[in-house]
Write a structure and sequence with these properties.
The chain is mostly helical and about 110 residues long. It has seven helices and no strands.
Length: about 110
């Protein structure tokens, strides 16, 4: 999964050499950047890429560079902690045994 922040940083610092294009699995464009890096044209295009990466929505970035897969940028769920919380809710009577089992299956 390609990270938008990583692509943005690569475009800014190493974009003139097309490193961000290699990172995004666009080797053909990366080679074109390398071949013409002495003209500084790729550096200008990379700066435009940098601006685009800064402003593009995460969903659009994922649709274009991650084949539509959603990248979870939030903290990873600790399954053990979540199960403990669910068990606590079941013991207190907030949720039923069936709800507990359904949520447990969903977590696992």
């Amino acid at each position: 999964m390609k990270n938008k922040t990583t692509a943005t940083i690569l475009a800014f610092f190493l974009g003139g050499f097309g490193i961000h294009r290699f990172y995004l699995n666009q080797g053909g464009l990366g080679i074109a950047y390398l071949l013409f890096c002495w003209t500084f044209i790729p550096a200008i295009i990379a700066f435009v890429d940098f601006i685009i990466f800064l402003t593009i929505d995460d969903a659009k970035f994922n649709a274009k560079y991650n084949q539509g897969k959603v990248v979870d940028t939030t903290a990873r769920i600790n399954t053990a902690e979540e199960l403990e919380k669910l068990h606590g809710l079941k013991v207190k009577g907030v949720i039923t045994e069936e709800e507990f089992q359904a949520r447990k299956v969903k977590l696992l």
